[in-house]
Design brief:
six-stranded antiparallel beta sheet, alpha/beta, metal-binding, nine-stranded mixed beta sheet, EC 3.4.11.-, protease, Aminopeptidase i, Domain 2
């Protein structure tokens, strides 16, 4: 697949995935179309040799795996991990605000979001809605308004002269989006959601909305930009880019190999949930794949996890924020992330293995170490490594503006990452 074709598919995937729920649904649908069988954690699993399966938890996390041939586990499992969530603005439980004749919704900041870019954007609303149906049963569906229905207007500089001097943004008072005039009719979010449910799901005509998990998102579609089309710009590149690369690589994996893709929710807030990397989801699945505890440890010790999460490219206007010997560049290949305090799980052996993977497919590779006088972010890598004891390498595509409402990657880097992960799933031996 060419870079152009791959990036268009990535753009389509991002557009279809405004929330972790939608990202998981998109991954699930693509896997089903590729012949994977959906499993239910509440049922017994009848797994067949050579089979391909997927399972979801909380509608926002997914694990997909293929069992490979008869000797699959003796060679270890090739695992790729990513996360489905991104920093955003989540709607509060009782959000309605009527101020100055305008109808607004109160929001809570999810994750470490860059807040300034959220102003003056055309926003829509999507997420999961739970309701009581006509028969009195509780059910849930995903909704997506798709069209721009909200905006967070900036205050004019004439009324805010210090705004360019680093004035802080108050998440409680400055961020509620404006959706409409609050004149007749009186507006109610749950009624609005019931109407949208019926519009998207005709079988929910009698739905009585009980609760919801909703996120605002930018409606501007992804785009390849730059004078020479060097850049790929989109929302939620962190970390849907890695989810897409992992999925694309898995769908091209050799049927003989034992391969697994895990995409979990809640990474941006620490991963401590039933469906996060610090929860039992992956362990539960591995226990069902390999019931014998001793054999499971043996298999895990033959396995390797590639934790794929975006890396910080060196910004030309802020180059001093990087260690001068570790400034990853856009379109220069995936980045190996290293931290001696185990904020990343890479060690010398796993880094060497990943470098060899890149060399085998002629993909450039870079490394990142945070400045010694700055704090370091983290990933699902150390969490998964500490829970499973699996060897791990933390890597990612270099990007600008991480955690902004719109992020920027090199247009060649999604292809580089996908190619290396594809080779990883197909490699004959692990370290």
């Amino acid at each position: 697949m060419s870079h152009t074709t791959l990036n268009q598919d990535l753009a389509d995937f991002i557009s279809q995935s405004p929330t972790p729920f939608h990202a998981t649904a998109s991954l699930r649908q693509r896997l089903l179309e590729a012949g994977y069988t959906a499993l239910d954690e509440r049922s017994d699993w009848q797994l067949e040799a050579g089979g391909k399966y997927l399972v979801t938890r909380n509608d926002s996390s997914l694990i997909a795996f293929q069992l490979g041939d008869a000797d699959n586990f003796e060679r270890g499992i090739r695992l790729v991990g990513a996360h489905t969530d991104s920093p955003c603005l989540r709607v509060k439980p009782q959000p309605e605000l009527n101020q100055q004749g305008l109808w607004q919704l109160g929001v809570e900041v999810y994750g470490g979001a860059l807040l300034a870019p959220w102003f003056d954007r055309d926003l829509s609303l999507a997420g999961r809605v739970s309701f009581r149906d006509g028969a009195g049963r509780i059910a849930s569906r995903l909704i997506d308004f798709k069209r721009p229905i909200a905006v967070i207007p900036n205050l004019a500089i004439h009324l805010n002269r210090g705004v360019n001097d680093g004035q802080p943004i108050n998440a409680q008072t400055d961020l509620p989006p404006v959706l409409a005039h609050s004149l007749d009719p009186v507006r109610d979010l749950r009624s609005l959601l019931a109407e949208q449910l019926q519009r998207e799901h005709p079988d929910c005509a009698e739905a009585s909305v009980l609760d919801y998990e909703l996120s605002f998102y930018d409606t501007q579609p992804p785009a390849t930009i730059g004078l020479d089309n060097d850049f790929f710009s989109a929302a939620r590149l962190d970390n849907l880019l890695s989810c897409h690369a992992g999925l694309s690589a898995l769908l091209d994996a050799s049927p003989e190999q034992a391969c697994l893709l895990v995409c979990t929710d809640h990474e941006e807030i620490g991963s401590s949930s039933c469906c996060g990397a610090d929860g039992p989801f992956l362990e539960d699945v591995l226990c069902r794949l390999i019931p014998d505890a001793t054999r499971r440890v043996q298999v895990i010790q033959r396995s390797l996890l590639v934790s794929a999460d975006n890396a910080h490219a060196v910004h030309p206007n802020y180059a001093a924020r990087h260690d001068e010997n570790h400034g990853p560049k856009l379109n220069a290949g995936p980045v190996i992330k290293i931290n001696s305090n185990q904020r990343y799980a890479t060690n010398s052996e796993t880094a060497a293995f990943f470098r060899q993977l890149c060399a085998a497919v002629k993909v450039p590779v870079q490394s990142f170490v945070v400045r010694s006088d700055m704090g370091c972010g983290s990933t699902i890598g150390p969490i998964t490594a500490s829970r499973l004891g699996v060897r791990t390498v933390d890597i990612g595509a270099p990007t600008f503006a991480m955690h902004s409402i719109r992020e920027l990657a090199g247009s060649r880097d999604p292809g580089y990452l996908t190619e290396v992960l594809r080779h990883f799933f197909n490699s004959a031996q692990l370290i």
